[in-house]
Amino acid sequence: MNPLVALGILFGPLVLVVSYLFTAATGPGVPPWADSVGLAIRLWGTALSVLVGPAAIHFDRTALARESGWKPSPLYYLIGLPVLSLPIALVYLSRRVVSA
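RESULT FIELD:
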């Protein structure tokens, strides 16, 4: 697996968990800066995912073509759309297992 893809898989949930840890805590013991830090983490995490996500999908597609001899169709790029990601990922994962 391409390192960018692995980073993307791990980065998204990590950003959400860390940002919500900063913003979800309430009470007298929470520092006043915690909310702004959580919002900044979420903003930069979203920006990075928008910038790195398409590159990771492209490099994964080219690496798959290089390693297995099977080049996924351009529809593979639709995996970046939230509504289509799960069905397309399942189709291409099954095809990837068969071609490996």
